Every structure is written in C-alpha cells, then in structure tokens.
Amino acid sequence: MRFSLIDLLIAIACIVLGCFAVAGIVHMLGYERLSQTRTELFGVPAGIIIFLVFTPPIYQRFRLWPLFLPVCPHCKRRPPGYHVGESRWPRVVVACGHCKQTIELWWSPPPSGDVSTTIPSLQLVWPHSIGRWRVLSRRRNDSFDTRGPFLVCELTDLPEGRYPAGDVMNCPRCQRLILLANADAATWCNTGAVVICPSCSDGQVGQILDSVPS
Q1: Spatial distance between the Cα atoms of 116 and 33, rounded to a whole number of angstroms
Q2: β-pairing, 161-162 with 187-188?
C-alpha cells in the first residue's frame, strides 16, 4: 500500500468532514448533542464514504497515484513500487520493482488502437483513489491456444512447477526455442507433462523464436 503525506492530508480532511456531517445530521434530527468520542466513532465510517465518493475525481484531476498499486502481471506479485520509464498522461509505462519487467498503465479508458500488444496493459477504474485495476490486454504472445499440455514427454529433465507465460524454453524434443503461450499450458506435473512447440505437435501452444528476446 502506498501512503504519502498528501494521501494522509486527504484522509484527515475526509474524516473531519465525516464528523461534521454526523454532528449536522444529529442536530437536524433533534437528538441530543453527541459526545466527542461518539462523534469521532461515527465520523470515521462517514469519512470513509466521503473518501470513496469524492476523492476519485481529485486523484484523477491532480494525477495522483492510488493507494494500492497493481499486481505485476509478470511475476504475480504486488511490488513496493514501480519505476516510471515513460509518462505521457493518461498513459504511464512502468517497471516492476520485483522482476524489473515493464507494464503499461492507463488512468482513463484508452482508444483500442493505443493499447500495447507487446506488454501487459492495465486500466485504473473506480474508485481511482483506492486502486482497482482492470486488465486491458496481455502480451500478444499470450493469446495462443490455452488448452494446456498436449502430450507426455518422458525424456525431459526439466523441474516440475508452474512457469509463467512469456518464459522462453527449449522444446524437449527438437530443442528449438519457444515462447510459452500461457501459464496453464506451462504447468508441468511429476509425470513429465510438458508443452512442446508447433513443429512437434498438432497444436499451436507456443511461438518459435530465432533467439531469446531481450
């Protein structure tokens, strides 16, 4: 969670407004004046509601980062921070603080033609101040067949485990470099089920490469 001084000031302002709102509602209903403790107790939930309703356009207008950064589509982890590589509002290209791979972030709905086909793209959706992210696109190479392993190869000595989409490996049969199409198709079990390249099977599960991509 990202929480800066500006976020703190905005949160305090919302809680103060929530306390005033509670006190005003109690006065309008003709009840006795609440104690300071009760005013603060009811003011905090009211402040949260005010934060959710009124801060999204503020964060959008002043181009503030939301409280929660997105989970990296590459390493599936939420990094402590992203390194900004290219910024042209409402589009920002950032590098994950964990795996250093790049993703594309949008602060508003982009034209379909502007969405990258080479790196994952995410869009910030309401409430923009909190940080909800919607996947716009995955890498172009992730759009192949998602049916999973096609056969069992007993000759591979590759370790069992889950290999993320986009990893490069050698086909266990022909040793040609292939780019894995999706994470499900790259899940190996202890029986040796593996993904093989199109030249060794009837299914298109990976893209053949001439060299390892940079």
Answers
A1: 57
A2: antiparallel
- Contacts with 87 (C-beta within 8 Å, 6 or more apart), sequence order: 93
pLDDT in tens, 94-127: 999 888 889 999 999 998 788 888 889 999 999 9
> Is the Cα torsion angle 111, 112, 113, 115 positive or negative in sign?
positive
Query: What percent of the chain is predicted at pLDDT more than 90?
Result: 42
Kindly state the average pLDDT of the residues 75-99: 90
Please, are residues 94 and 105 in contact by the beta-carbon 8 Å criterion? yes
Question: What sign does the CA torsion over 12, 13, 18, 23 have?
Answer: positive
Q: CA nearest 182: which of 134, 136, 149?
A: 149
Average pLDDT, the chain: 74
- The Cα 153–Cα 82 span in angstroms is 39
CA distances to 18, 83, 108, 162 from 99, rounded to whole Å, are 41, 11, 26, 16
Write down the domain spans for the chain. 5-61, 82-138, 151-208
Q: Which of 67, 69, 61 is nearest to 108 (CA)?
A: 61
Cβ atoms of 47 and 14 within 8 Å: the answer is yes
